Amino acid sequence: MKITAGRTVFVLSMCLMWLWPGDALSQPTESQTGGVTGKEKPPAGQPAGASPDTRANGAEKSPLIVTRDYIIGPEDVLEITVWKNQDLSKVVAVRPDGRISLPLIGEAAAVGRTPAQLTEEISAKLKEFKENPQVSIVVKEVNSYSIFVLGEVSKPGRYPLKSKTTLLQGITIAGGFTEKAARNKLVVFRFSANGSGEEKVKASYDDIVLRDGSLQNIELKPGDTVVVPSETMVLVP
Question: How far apart are the C-alpha atoms of 133 and 61, rounded to whole Å?
Answer without folding.
Answer: 39
